[in-house]
Design a protein that fits this description.
Blueprint: H1 12-20, H2 26-37, H3 39-44, H4 47-54, H5 58-67, H6 73-86, H7 101-122, H8 125-136, E1 140-145, H9 149-162, E2 167-170, H10 173-182, E3 187-193, H11 199-210, E4 214-219, H12 225-228, E5 232-235, H13 248-269, H14 271-285
Parallel strand pairs: 1-2, 1-3, 3-4, 4-5
Helix pairs in contact: 2-4, 2-5, 7-13, 8-13, 9-13, 10-11
Pfam families: HTH_6 (PF01418), SIS (PF01380)
GO molecular function: carbohydrate derivative binding; DNA binding; DNA-binding transcription factor activity
Keywords: DNA-binding, Transcription, Transcription regulation
Length: 289
């Protein structure tokens, strides 16, 4: 069982290993690689045997388990066992140049579906509730996203604007820096960064947080520099295939979590949100062909 008392969701632990992998030390990555590649045998190993196979000390194994939220090695092994029992069967989702149109469609769809399900398994409900509360109580909300994350930021802006929130979205690094300098107490800065390592975003968060603003990060790396300067972190697993470049599956997973978040905000605001939706709809209804 996790420290928070939560039993793992389907493939939750194996997924979380992949999510936190970039933040692991070199020795911890040896443990992660061994478990991901040989889950069956790793599940049966004692802590001493696993340490020998990975070429690390037992303290590294324990530190690795605690990073995943487990009290000890036995709890970790139990969770891996549950993962392997519940592991879904699926086609190999890595697209090959020789795949025909139908296979590419099948693999892409399967990968997108799995990413959404993986997101459900990594949602921290405590952080989600904190994010909802912060957005509802914000005097103003600044939504930031650079490059492809900028389009996601615009989607968040649109949803919040429709329910009557005081919000703006920025995707230019200089504008982000300047608006972050203006953010203060009762304001919320919401940043979207898959890597969590973008310097412009991290510096904007530092500046806004210093001014008293609440910072919320939507990222694929819970141990990133951005997460470190965030009051609230919403974690979305990221997976990019070699032939994909910027992953649409990651964006789909992000949009799914954002949909959950913004739906909860709308539900909490109740009539205020619904009245704003009606007003904004009436403003454009006569513009429909």
């Amino acid at each position: 069982m996790r420290k928070n008392g939560k039993m793992p969701n389907q493939t939750d632990t194996l997924l979380m290993i992949k999510v936190i992998y970039p933040s692991l030390t070199k020795t911890e990555k040896k443990v992660a690689d061994l478990i991901l590649q040989h889950s069956d045998s790793a599940m049966m190993a004692t802590i001493t045997n696993l340490a020998e196979q990975a070429g690390v000390g037992e303290t590294t194994i324990l530190r690795f388990c605690r990073k995943l939220g487990f009290k000890g090695y036995q709890d970790f092994k139990l969770s891996i066992a549950i993962d392997l029992v519940n592991l879904p069967t699926h086609i190999n989702d890595e697209i090959d140049e020789d795949d025909d149109y139908q296979m590419v469609a099948r693999k892409t769809t399967a990968n997108n579906e799995r990413m959404v399900q993986d997101t459900l398994g990594t949602i921290n409900m405590i952080e989600l509730k904190k994010a909802v509360k912060a957005l509802i109580g914000a005097r103003k909300i600044y939504v930031y996203g650079l490059v492809s994350s900028g389009t996601t930021a615009q989607d968040v802006y649109y949803r919040l604007m429709r329910i009557g929130m005081n919000v703006e979205a920025q995707r230019d690094a200089h504008i982000i820096a300047m608006t972050a300098a203006l953010a203060g107490e009762q304001d919320v800065v919401f940043g979207i960064s898959t890597s969590g390592g973008t310097v412009d975003m991290v510096e904007a968060f530092r500046r806004a947080r210093k001014n008293g603003a609440t910072t919320i990060a939507l990222t694929g790396n819970g141990e990133s520099a951005l997460a470190a300067v965030s009051d609230i972190t919403l974690l979305v697993p990221s997976k990019e295939m070699p032939l994909q470049g910027g992953s649409f599956s990651t964006k789909i997973a992000q949009m799914n979590l954002l949909d959950v978040l913004l739906t909860l905000v709308t539900m909490e605001l109740k009539d205020t949100a619904y009245d704003s939706i009606k007003l904004t709809a009436k403003a454009v209804v006569d513009r429909m062909v």
